[in-house]
Amino acid sequence: MTQKKKTVIDEFLYELSTNEKGNISCSMMVDGVERTFEITERDARSFSQIFESAKRFKQRKAQRPPLHPIDIANYIAKKMMEAGNPTNTIALQKTLYFIQCEYMRYMGKAVSLFDSTDAEDILMKWMFGPVYPKVYHEYNLFGSLPISSLPFTQVVSWKEDNLEEALDEKGITLDDIDKWLFTYINIDRFDLVDMTHRHQIWLKDAEAINKGNKKIPYDLNELCEEIISNPNFFKMKSK
Fold first, then answer.
1. Stretch 118-146: mean pLDDT
2. Which residues are paired to 131 by β-bridges?
3. Ordered strands of the 124-126 beta sheet
4. Tens of pLDDT along 125-137?
5. Which of these, 28, 51, 121, 198, could form a disulfide with 116 (CB 3.0-4.6 Å)?
6. Better-predicted residue by pLDDT, 8 or 99
């Protein structure tokens, strides 16, 4: 999968006075190098508005807390409780995995739905398939029982109001999350496990995983390649 080279424009400057040609002299810092050119006054004002908007967006993004897997896990757990159909920890983890996969399919590239790079937020290969360790440790108290409430630490710390804005910056909405979660959450949990076990990205490490190794992460580039190349990636095994 080819990645497009990005040009980083740090700042746009211009003098609001015309030269002998009737144009405005401008300068930009492009990939750390200053570039000068001339444009009309109207274009200069348009460019200025674009960069001001981009600057405000960057400031808002910097102020927003990072999106973690636990945020989506809490949303799923709460959604299912409100629907009167509480989920379980295995289905929660596998649904989180498929939401990440659906997000990459939607975006058409290897990209994480989540901002956090904490070790506890990295998708790992475990015996029952993909697991986000932080989500596991928070929800493990329910064991195999239905998730009847958010963990106490999440009740205290989780801010659902941040979700909509965070997802908007990711190019999706809560409606997308709902569509993906309801595609998988009600599938039998062990059928979900079986689906993930048939993915080559898990199978290639199955021997080590089944010996108890819990430190093998998913490579999102590799995962995305399999999503694109495997037409059965999102399908259940025929019974």
1. 97
2. 124
3. 129-131, 124-126, 216-217
4. 999 999 999 999 9
5. 121
6. 99
DSSP states along the chain = ---PPPPPEEEEEEEEEE-TTS-EEEEEEETTEEEEEEE-HHHHHHHHHHHHHHHHHHHHHHHSPPP-HHHHHHHHHHHHHHTT----HHHHHHHHHHHHHHHHHHHTS---S-----GGGS-EEETTEEE-HHHHHHHGGGTTS---S--HHHHHH--THHHHHHHHHTT--HHHHHHHHHHHTTS-HHHHHHHHHTSHHHHTTHHHHHTT---EEPPHHHHHHHHHH-TTTT-PPP-
* pLDDT, mean of residues 35-45: 71
Token reading at 63 = 């102020």
The count of residues in the chain is 239
